[in-house]
Every structure is written in structure tokens, then in C-alpha cells.
Amino acid sequence: MENFGIYIIITKPVLLYTTIAEKCVANGIKMLQLREKHLSDRELIKIAKDIRSITKGTETKFVINDRPDIAAICDADYLHLGQDDITIEDARKIVGAMKIGLSTHSIQQAKEALSKKPDYIGFGPIYPTNAKANSDNPVGTEQLKQVLDFANVPVVAIGGIFLENIHYVIDAGARNVALVRHFMQTHEFDKRVQDFKLLLKRK
User: Do residues 139 and 103 touch, judged by C-beta distance below 8 A?
Assistant: First the structure.
């Protein structure tokens, strides 16, 4: 099973979208997701195409959140779907064989998601978070451990994870971790990526 390591989600960044894409490619980030709910479709497509032009042909896979239509338009590597989004079956009618990841917020949801044969699942929020407007209840590292035990695809731990608590997440067995605010609200993007890579390597 291939692990991604750092999974970066772009949401209201302080840096330019293209700058983040360039830095992800330069730092060998394997997964980069565009998750912007406040933009118009035209803005979203423009940004997605700009990011895609930078990541195409690199080891940085580009993920579009929620929108199979935009994922297809910009030729993304992955589509990511939440619990309230279009179903994976309906999404396939738009994106075909494109890889798909699913968000899960409980052990039951994780089991149901895995039955649909996604390419990976997200699990969280591990800790309380305000990165999303309507956040689900924190699942904690014990439930994360259980999901890691039965999952047959990569599991991305997400939600309220920062450098000060990430060692608990890694100790639970996570090898794929998504951080949002930690990377979006800083001008020291490269340094934070390197610091985080060191932490993952120690395990």
C-alpha cells in the first residue's frame, strides 16, 4: 500500500495558489488538494487549471474536492468526495476511471466507504478544528488506530493536527496526514514542510 506522507489541502491560503503548487512540486509533496467553497465556478476552474499546469508530469498528484465536473475539466489526478457530496457511483459517470478518495467521520462511515473501493479514505477530524464551517465531532487517535487496522487502502488522518500534537497521530500508526491551517496560514511554507517530513521520518 503506497503512503502519501504529507497531504496538503489548499483553503484560503496566504500565498498564491501557483506558489503553493510550485513549492509542493519542489518539496516532493505527493498529494495536493484544492478545497475552496467560496469561489465562483469560473474562478475555481481558472485556479485548478493553473495548478494542474504546474503539477502535471510531477510526483505531486492534484486532487479536486467535491466537484467531479471540475476534476474532469482540469484533468485532475484525483477527485475527493465528502459524505454529503455526489455518490462515488454517480461521480464515476463524470470522471470515469479517475482515482477517488472519500471522507469519513466515524468507524461505520469508514467501513461503508471502503466497501465502495475508493483509492484512499480521509478519517477525522482527529481533533477539534475550525478549518471547516460545520465540523464533525472529533474521532480521536483510538478510533484512528482501529480504522488503520482494517483499512485496505491508505488512510489520511485529518482535522486539528499541528506540530504540537502530530506525534500522537503518528504513534497511532498514521503515515498519511493532512494539515490545512498549518500550511495555509504561513509564509514559511518550505520550512514547515521540511519540519514535518523530519517528524514522519523518525517513525
Answer: no
